[in-house]
Design goal:
With 119 residues, the protein is mainly beta. It has one domain: 3-layer Sandwich (Rieske Iron-sulfur Protein), CATH 2.102.10.10. 3% of the residues lie in helices and 36% in strands. It is built from one helix and nine strands. It has a three-stranded antiparallel beta sheet with strand order 1-9-8, with no helix packed on it. A three-stranded antiparallel beta sheet has the order 2-3-4, with no helix packed on it. β6 and β7 form a beta hairpin.
Amino acid sequence: MMIPAGVRLGPLELIEEGRARNFVLDVSRTVGVDNSYFHGFIVRRGQTVYGYRDLCPHQSLPLTQKLDDYLTPDAKFIACSWHGALFQVEDGQCVGGPCAGARLQPWPVRVEDGIIITA
């Protein structure tokens, strides 16, 4: 799904340092279908954010079963709560589990003047 560039998602402080947050966007106008939603999440590392579609490449399920619980306890990796796949935060590359070698689908986001926006 195409997410238009320049959508303001909120201040960087919405996401605690070293944590992740889920976002659901109504994209009905963008895709031309009523009740169409994009499910994604953003991980914060300092002043940098990394965004991904909330979809595990293993079985096309959302990554988490608990809201905003995308990271391993040490916050080093993104984790799929269904089958234990582990993904690098910086590029979405799967480094362990049933989909080793696959990648999460990136969601281009950036921080501009302290605001998280789609890129």
